[in-house]
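Sample pair:
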Amino acid sequence: MSTTPTAVRDRASQQVPDLGPSELHDSGASHELPPAETRSDTRASIAAAVMVLGCLLARLPDRLLHETGLRGWVAGLVGVIALVSGARVIARAPFTFARRSVSASMWVAEQCLALAGTIAVGAVLTLPLYALIRASSAWWLWAWLLFAGVTVVGQAAMPLVLRAQVGPMIPAPLPLARRVLVIGAQAGVDLAGGVLIAGKANTKGPRCNAYVVGLGPSRRVVLEPGVAAWPPELIDQVVAHEIGHWRLGHTVRRLPITLAAQLTTFALAAAILSFQPLLDIAGVAHPGDPRSYPLLLALTGALVLPARLLLARYDRSQERAADRFALGVLGEPEAFARMLDRAADDGGAARQLPWWRHLVAGHPPIDERILACQQFVPAT
């Protein structure tokens, strides 16, 4: 496929249309928390998990319902959600207080506001699930269908979410657009929607991302401001990597694995919750009993972890495949390595990760990707 200069110029000057369904990946330059903050977050999460287990073993939900006399499973469940959410906030408090950037009174106000939000969101998400548990022994299948629907809709709506986050988009300058469209032609992708620059980065903190979005005549490349300011030869590498995600169908390939992992998680949760000796230890009459909420939380953490590890490993393999695609298209391993260095310097992408962070990371660390780049051998 070839792209003439006239076509390039026409596409680069097009008005920005609405984003449609997409293959969406970021460039892997997402900001990483400093190691000290990462350790603090990990410790806070462990403390919160221990507190949930403590609520379960001490049968605090049962005591709450007994002392307050809450009637009805809805009121009881909301009360238990509030109890467990408050316990988790208390467990995390020493870590969040140590990292606060405001006065103690402001920190207390923030924690109270966060607690109220957590209770509200927890109730909205949990009440339908418990209604299903109480209505049918096949609740896990219906719950999976509900979550699968949310997942699919969320994937389809991602371009719209992105558009809301990054604000207005403008056509890229002609020289930049021409380079990007030529790379698309080299990779066999017609970027008929042109090349756009986002009005702002889509998250707080430094971030350097690019995306391929849209279908057919609306397909285009979106560059966030951080990437658009890089030297042209580095932008080339980012664009080739993102086009690699699209050409290799990574989003479409990942979706069935995500849905299968969700189904397996729900089925296992149902099997475990049907084990009466476990319910007896927790002081729970049946799975739909509001007092089972901390047990459900503990199960969720235990069962979701294997799925998270599996999906993270799959994501890392997709990133490596997109790297190889870019190297195969442009054949510039030194420039690709410089791009990765820039991603670490400007975007905060982690150069190295401890083993436990590596297991759940969606991107290989930068040093690992640079080494693979240096060892890349073009296909003959």
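The two ends are 21 Å apart (CA to CA).
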